Amino acid sequence: MLRMRSFLPPLLFTLAYAGISLGVTNSYYQLILTLVPVWAVFGLSWNLLSGYTGLISFGHAAFFGIGAYATALGQIYFHISPWLLIPIAAMLGGIAGLLIGFPTFRLQGHYFALAMLAYPLAILYVFEWLGFQEVTLPIQRDAPIAFMQFTDPHIYTLLGLAIMLATIVLTQMIERSRFGMALLAIKQNEAAAEAAGINTLAWKLRAITLSGAIAAAIGGFYAQVLLVVTPASVFGMLVSAQALTVAMFGGVGTVWGPVIGSVILIPLAEILHAEAGARIPGIQGVIFGIAIVAVILLAPEGLFWKLRDVLRKRTASRATTSDAPDETAANVTPLKPAARQRAATGEVVLEVRNLSRSFGGLKAVQDVSFKLHQNEILGIIGPNGAGKTTLFNLLNGFLKPSQGEVLIGGRNMSGQRPHVICEAGIGRTFQVMRPFLRMSILDNVVVGAYVRARTDDQARQFAADAVARVGLSAVADRVAGELSTKELRLMELARAIAGQPRILLLDETLAGLGHGEADEVVAVIQQLARDGMTIAIIEHTMQAMVRLVDRFLVLDHGAVITEGLPEVVTRDNRVIEAYLGKKWVGHAAN
Amino acid sequence: MEGFLQALAAGLLIGAVYGLMCVGLGLIFGVMRVINFAHGDFMMLGMYTAFYLFTAAGVQAVFGNTVGPFVAIILAGPVLAAFGYLVHRTLISHVSGTRTASLEGEGHYAQLILTLGIALILQNGGLIVFGSVLASIRTPLSSSAWELGPFFDMSVFLNKARSIDAVVSLVMMILLSLLITRTRIGKSLRAAADNPTAATYMGIDVDRAHRTAFALGCGITAIAGGLLATNYPFHPFVGLEYVIVMYAGVVLGGMGSIIGAFWGGMTIGLVQQMSTLILPTQLQNAAIFAVFLLIIFFRPQGFFGRMVERT
């Protein structure tokens, strides 16, 4: 039901737009009204890849141009109808997306963005060289409708709107599904997404394939509307820039951003072009540029997000009085220190054998071996730079070991990619928290649930359970940006357990927490262990750790110094020396 | 063989100027991590500034036709540096540097679209002010050449203006390297580029370092633009043609490496000139992008870049 309701606004918007366009008789304005959905769809296709994954593409003109030329050349050389050619163009665009994505996704950040720039420009020069400087679509007098040629320009607008509505609905469906969640997770932190069981490369390839297909389809339609195709008008840098402009102006990462951007900017640019540009050539560009600069300085994240923040603030200030007090945020009943039976005799669920990893000359982890037993809490301690986080990175697949093996449930998993290891039952949290600030807590946690969940509903169920287990149910609908550090830590914990792991790797989960807060988180971890979870935790605060863990593993300079029960380890001279230096060993003895 | 040597020489000469052009952008990108789409348009302004300094501001009358253009080109550097400083202060600083911490994607989206907007203003403003007629900074040297050789009955001809352009580029490059490695300003730039947070704690004003880098980068690219204009005519939209070459050079060299940007630009100059030996001239630019893609697939961090990853 909720889904049906979310499709209503785009439908109403489209209908209203269609109503207005039917009233316009001036053919120039009619063309503008057709171009608005065209660029909105192009912006949406860009948004699907770049807005949701954060991998900015400067080269979307490659797909647009492929679609436009496929539609034009197919009619000229093979006499195929554009009704058929536009779907074919979409297929070609999808294939191009796959071909471009596969090598280019090896690059990250700015390198990816700038490499994408090269594709349409390289193609542009090839098309010029091939002699397609200006391709005019043949007028079909015999069967105009079969060749998508209408005397009434309103029909183009309606077709454009239909494509736009379809793209909006598709984007909305993706936004809510496993697909959209995976893309958002990639945007926030690709490494963390892999660790949450998301095969990032596969999802990115799906995104660029779909994005390329949509861009190519709308490129084909654009060729059909204008009836002339030139390399610069479909492959040029300004075409790629158009996608960025409408999407960023309106707001990135939302279905409405590109639509808002297009509805405002395209008519503005065209009308300026016709009215002012005729008198002083260039003035239209200056005014357009100033408008963009001014809006971006006021709303750096785009109009949609600015408006939403303003509205949210207004409703929030009205509702503060009725808001529940913060104390209900985490109603965990503090538990007595671990009274459960020491579990070191249980089944071995994780075994590490002679694990080593060096970076150049630095041996970050050397010859580490240990076993993790079912239902045990293992504390991994050691001074800064001891190799604790590197050890976790080796366990969950971020790093490949130079030597040694990691056995999960008896199977050797060393060298596997993180999402595979996550599927094998290892969840993990990070030292540096990476919440999705604009998403609700529940949505944040859902991302972690998809590794086990078969359906979207099941994922929501897993997420809700996980949120309840860490005691955040009361605030599950709040956006993560409003939370305290403690709540964020608990949320990260929930995200890790939403994937139903058997083993949890917790990296400094208590860091940055006050005394009372740390106790609450400790209580949650203890409850998890009581419910059967096996946990390895890295931590600095010894006080909390001594009460929490069953066994310690002490690392220094990448190697295991000692291993054993808390009361034994904390009195071990080598441990005191590693932490505090030699001269404290004597003090401690007294 | 003679053709090869000639293309090699031409590639080295134009490559030196491209190198300087890329260094200007590389400096901005390396220090600020901002993608400045308007950089080609700053270069366009540099070209026009040199042009008007030469023809209208009396440089031609004082220094004559041979030396005059180069004096005007060098003078355009500080003018554009001042302009860049102003643009950074009034516009770009609002979406970059220490203010972006709270923005989605560290403010990259805002920076991109802001510089796109600035590019639009500069290009179209240029059209209004300068008109659409092609301009060029001609010197008598532009159409004469030195003959090297003959070596084994082969001679290589070096266009005089381009040779001087290359020499000026190299001198500028050396001066810039000295500035970066030997002076206090250079140190603060390197610190701000390497780790802005740590630099702030060490008492370095990162926003000021960004302004300096932006101004310096604009000035350097303006000089490179002026040098190009001795052989290539230009117009208000010329920036679009070069901004891509600049980015290709910066990426090839390794983002963040200033000397790398120079070699990246040099590579592009060489590829562009050498490709004429085997490809039709229309495909010259396609060859640049093909080589560019090939190089970054095999060496994603560029010639001089480092891979840094953190979890």
Offer a few descriptive terms.
heterodimer; A: alpha/beta; Rossmann fold; six-stranded mixed sheet; 58% helix; B: 311 residues; mainly alpha; globular; disordered C terminus
Q: Could you explain the architecture of this structure?
A:
The complex is a heterodimer of chains A (590) and B (311). Chain A is of the alpha/beta class and 590 residues long. Chain A has three domains: 2-237, no CATH class; 339-425 and 502-590, Rossmann fold (3-Layer(aba) Sandwich), CATH 3.40.50.300; 434-499, no CATH class. Helix content of chain A is 58%, strand content 11%. A six-stranded mixed sheet of chain A has the order 8-9-10-5-11-12, sandwiched between helices. Chain A has a four-stranded antiparallel sheet with strand order 4-3-6-7, covered by helices on one side. In chain A, strand 3 (348-359) and strand 4 form a beta hairpin. In chain A, helix 17 (441-449) packs across helix 18 and helix 17 (441-449) runs parallel beside helix 19 (485-498). The radius of gyration of chain A is 29 Å and the shape is elongated. Mean pLDDT of chain A is 84; it is low at 321-343. Chain B has 311 residues and is mostly helical. Chain B has eleven helices and two strands, in the order ααααββααααααα. In chain B, strands 1-2 form a two-stranded antiparallel sheet. In chain B, helix 5 (160-182) crosses helix 6 (184-194). Chain B is globular. The model of chain B is unreliable at 307-311 (pLDDT under 50). Chains A and B meet through helix 5, helix 11 and helix 13 of A and helix 4, helix 9 and helix 11 of B.
